[in-house]
Design goal:
The complex is a heterodimer of chains A (about 325) and B (about 325).
Chain A lengths: L5 E12 L2 E13 L4 E5 L6 H9 L6 E10 L2 E2 L5 H7 L4 E4 L3 H4 L6 H12 L5 H14 L5 H5 L8 H13 L5 E5 L7 H18 L2 E6 L2 H7 L2 E6 L2 E7 H6 L4 H9 L49 E4 L2 E3 L16
Parallel strand pairs in A: 3-8, 3-9, 6-7, 7-8
Antiparallel strand pairs in A: 1-2, 1-4, 4-5, 9-10, 10-12, 11-12
Chain B lengths: L3 E16 L4 E17 L3 E5 L6 H8 L7 E6 L2 E2 L5 H8 L2 E4 L3 H4 L6 H11 L5 H14 L16 H13 L5 E5 L7 H18 L2 E6 L2 H7 L2 E6 L2 E7 H6 L4 H9 L41 H5 L5 E2 L6 E2 L4 H13 L1
Parallel strand pairs in B: 3-8, 3-9, 6-7, 7-8
Antiparallel strand pairs in B: 1-2, 1-4, 4-5, 9-10, 10-12, 11-12
The chains are: A alpha/beta (about 325), B alpha/beta (about 325).
Chain lengths: ~325, ~325
């Protein structure tokens, strides 16, 4: 098997909050191999974005990686100097965020910003050459009239066009890895389809690996090869995309899939997951999913934290009773 | 179909664009351009479409949060525009609104029980004890624990806050709820709970819903009738099963095909109808068909003549497209196959 391009290893991240510390990510590991598309899926507060921001050194001031490693091409990004991280982000790792408005500087033209990114990472690239490359990049991501657009400011772009420009910026230096954090969440569905199509094409052309962080299981099913499901700061299941959608071995994954309303078939009542996601400041002892889990049934095992154990080929589940889900289709009652 | 409860006819809402030091009118946003539909008692009409299509403005104009530029709104046989302020206030009890973001729409410094009791206060319903009993009943109805009456909005999760918003809307025993993206801000596992709650309340209380949403899968689950909006117009309107399985308007087809399918075995990039470009500026809408600038079927006729919303295919819904027929068959085969 190929060496991983990025190997996140037992990352633990904490945030200082009023009255204490919240552990937002609690021992998360995941690997991404060259050219691979990995989906990281979870609801708000699951830690999916924080895991990536921890690896990239992009945590806000009150956040801190307290343990773990994130090896990218053999170098540990955790604890790396900001100057070194800056060299990696934007050159070897391209980033696409949910809201491109916050990623762009509002007082610089879109063209200037992409050119700056090019020149920062490509010594000796002339201003003129960078400008020409910017126009090429904007055209590649499907922005009409790219010469004119390059001279405009971010607010003059529509949401979909801004996201295209952000993708142009992310791919500018031919990164080996693109990390897209909810890249289509703020967009309308027809624009989402355009952006997903574009991301897929960019990835194919550049052969970059892609990490797609999203809450949308539809996007995961359409775009990814391997899936990491997160809940309450931990990975609860990981497998190839087909296995996750058809042979999931964690009750949370099953519950989530079953609770989705579908366009292609109707049910009388949605089988919702009961209860609420736990408060990260007061996680239940043992398995975090226990209070909502149909497999729990008061069993003692659930009071100890389940490891992410093998459940099949390339398949892991953090449920003591994952074997009980083998061969079952659909959900668990 | 049961009795008609709400009838909207030729609703128009324009917003002036003002600018300069004198705030002179510089243009007009054509937010809603002649929209007509009916909602039957006890049923759900979903108003769907993307940002800027005017669906929320329709809901807000019916509620008179905005004054309509034109058209009529008839509720239970009464034209609301003919009512005096006092009469309108009485009618409005039967017509309530639920906001998307329960956090922004609930007063932060008021305990949940008082929030739900507020409409009873305003309309002078019952005495203190009676109101308290009604609040308990409403909490029970929407699945909130009784002791939650004394808690403040920030102490609730998003799903629970939306339950408070629904309980408040139900306080005066309305017959119609206008729900503006009521589950869009919620996580998947919580969204299903609130969707189920809305379905149950409709069954138990015989409520009619005008359900404004962009999430087509949620709409598929709840709606009896669907109206698809684009740039201020309804482009397709009819029975939900028909619109979802035999969409006849190119925009509806594109919209449905764009929804990612949560099953990798059904992955098929060729299925998607990718639209070109963005929504036109609603202050400067195209001539003729509003969708023609992004439509793969558009020709000169579409620029010259706006297609009326009417039956155009043997088994399809009302469609505002000159070329509805052929695509209805094609897309119908794809979706059922």
């Amino acid at each position: 098997m190929t060496e991983p391009l990025l190997s996140i290893d037992e990352i633990v991240t904490e945030f200082r909050v009023e009255g204490g510390v919240v552990r937002a990510v609690n021992g998360v590991s995941l690997d991404v191999r060259p050219g691979e598309t990995v989906g990281v899926v979870g609801e708000s507060g699951s830690g999916k974005s924080v895991t990536m921001m921890s690896a990239l050194g992009l945590l806000p001031g009150h956040g801190r990686v307290v343990a773990g490693h994130a090896r990218f091409r053999g170098r540990d990004l955790v604890g790396l100097a900001e100057r070194e991280l800056e060299r990696i982000r934007g050159r070897e790792i391209g980033l696409v965020f949910q809201d491109p408005m916050t990623a762009f500087n509002p007082v610089m033209t879109v063209g200037e910003q992409i050119a700056e990114g090019l020149r920062r990472h490509q010594a000796g690239l002339s201003r003129r050459a960078a400008g020409a490359r910017v126009v090429e990049l904007l055209a590649e991501v499907g922005i009409p009239a790219p010469e004119r657009r390059a001279r405009q400011y971010p607010h003059e772009f529509s949401g979909g066009m801004r996201q295209r420009a952000m993708i142009a910026m992310a791919m500018a230096n031919r990164p080996a890895l693109i990390i897209a954090d909810e890249p289509t969440t703020a967009l309308d569905v027809t624009i989402q389809a355009q952006i997903l199509d574009l991301l897929g094409r960019v990835q194919q052309e550049t052969e970059a690996a892609l990490i797609m962080i999203t809450h949308d299981l539809g996007v995961i099913a359409e775009m990814t090869e391997r899936v990491v499901v997160m809940y309450a700061g931990r990975v609860v299941e990981t497998a190839d995309v087909d296995t996750v959608f058809h042979e999931a071995r964690h009750p949370y994954t099953r519950g989530l899939l079953r609770s989705l309303p579908r366009l292609d078939h109707r049910v009388a009542e949605l089988p919702a997951i009961g209860g609420q996601p736990p408060n990260p400041q007061a996680l239940p002892p043992g398995c975090s999913y226990r209070p909502r889990c149909p497999l729990n049934q008061g069993r003692d095992e659930c009071l100890t934290r389940p490891e992410l154990n093998p459940a099949g080929r390339g398949h892991r589940s953090a449920c003591h009773f994952h074997a009980e889900l083998a061969g079952l289709t659909g959900g668990v009652e | 179909m049961s009795a008609e409860l709400l009838r909207v006819e030729g609703l128009v809402k324009h917003f002036p664009i003002r600018g300069g030091v004198l705030q002179r009118r510089r243009g007009t946003v054509h937010a809603v351009e002649g929209v007509s539909f009916t909602v039957a008692a006890g049923e759900t009409l979903a108003l769907v479409g993307e940002s800027g299509c005017g669906k929320s403005t329709v809901g807000r104009t019916i509620m008179r949060f905005h004054e309509p530029t034109g058209g009529t709104v008839t509720f239970d046989g009464t034209d609301l525009s003919t009512l005096s302020t006092a009469q309108l206030r009485q009618k409005r009890r039967e017509l309530q609104f639920v906001f998307q973001d329960p956090y922004a729409s609930l007063p932060a410094r008021m305990p949940a029980g008082d929030i739900v009791a507020e409409p009873l206060h305003i309309h002078g319903v019952g005495d203190r004890a009676g109101r308290r009993a009604r609040v308990r009943e409403l909490f029970d109805l929407v699945g909130l624990p009784a002791q939650a009456v004394s808690r403040y909005p920030h102490e609730f999760s998003g799903g629970q806050r939306q339950r408070i918003g629904i309980a408040r809307a139900l306080a005066l025993e309305p017959r119609l709820l206008i729900l503006d993206e009521p589950v869009s801000a919620l996580d998947v596992s919580i969204q299903a709970q609130v969707v189920n709650l809305l379905a149950r309340l409709q069954r138990e209380l015989g409520l009619a819903y005008l359900f404004i949403a962009h999430d087509l899968a949620v709409v598929r689950h709840l709606a009896h009738q669907v109206a698809v909006m684009y740039l201020g117009h309804i482009v397709e309107y009819g029975d939900a099963d028909t619109v979802f399985t035999r969409p006849a308007h190119p925009y509806t087809q594109a919209l449905l095909s764009a929804v990612p399918v949560p099953d990798p075995r059904l992955r098929d990039p060729a299925r998607r109808r990718l639209l070109q470009g963005d929504l036109p500026n609603p202050a400067d809408p195209p001539s003729g068909c509003p969708f023609r600038t992004r439509c793969w079927r558009a020709d000169d006729r579409c620029a010259a003549e706006r297609p009326a919303l009417r039956v155009r295919t043997p088994s399809g819904a009302d469609t505002a497209c000159h070329y509805a027929e052929e695509d209805a068959r094609n897309e119908g085969a794809r979706l059922s196959g």
